[in-house]
Design a protein that fits this description.
With about 210 residues, the protein is α+β, with helices and mostly antiparallel strands. Helix content is about 40%, strand content about 10%.
Length: about 210
């Protein structure tokens, strides 16, 4: 599948907000957005009047980039959310949070969603005792996500239990730091999803 291979810091600059795509680096002085908080390109610093459509588009692009999804994949997710009962925008965000790569990131097993995606595709993550290498797979309440036993001897996972013990994870998850695993206690509520997204703008965009 195609994927974005350019400098990810350009995405933060384009959206005008930190998307925290590179883990700890985003909190350091090395963050490109902290140095150049304007859009990339020749006309990045020029001020332009943004239309209503432009505002809605930027919100959708922001969400897509935060969760590391391509356009078709994101739109398909929206269509599924639209068919569910409840508020479409909230359904969409909850579905995005349920993605396996996002869950691995939220549990603290990876520093970023892109790193979490790599861990999943390389077979380091198991769900309910079985290896699952599909980052877009949606977890369910009661699912147990853990590090593959065969992978725990790798340098990346050594000492992770101590690091995880200091992590604060979302309330809808239960972390077992010692065993490098976590359980999905329930689905998150909108108030528990801490992403800078105005989901109603995405709904308005796709409803045109």
């Amino acid at each position: 599948m195609a994927r974005y291979t350019e400098a990810v810091c350009r995405q933060c600059r384009r959206e005008g907000v930190k998307l925290f795509l590179k883990g700890d680096r985003c909190y350091s002085d090395k963050c490109a957005f902290a140095v150049r908080a304007y859009a990339p390109g020749q006309h990045g610093q020029s001020r332009k009047k943004v239309s209503e459509y432009g505002i809605q588009l930027r919100e959708k692009q922001k969400a897509r980039r935060i969760y590391g999804m391509l356009e078709r994949q994101f739109h398909n997710c929206f269509v599924r959310a639209e068919k569910q009962k409840g508020i479409t925008g909230e359904n969409l965000l909850i579905m995005l949070e349920r993605r396996l790569d996002n869950v691995v990131y939220r549990l603290g097993l990876a520093e970023s969603r892109s790193q979490a995606r790599q861990l999943v595709t390389h077979g380091h993550i198991i769900v309910n005792g079985k290896r699952l290498d599909i980052p877009s797979a949606l977890v369910k309440a009661g699912d147990v996500i853990s590090v593959n036993e065969a992978s725990r001897a790798k340098d990346y996972f050594k000492g992770m239990a101590e690091t995880l013990a200091t992590k604060t994870i979302p309330a809808w998850m239960i972390l077992d730091a010692q065993n490098l695993s976590g359980k999905i206690d329930r689905f998150p509520t909108r108030e528990e999803i801490d992403v800078p997204i105005a989901e109603h703008l995405i709904v308005e965009l796709y409803s045109k």
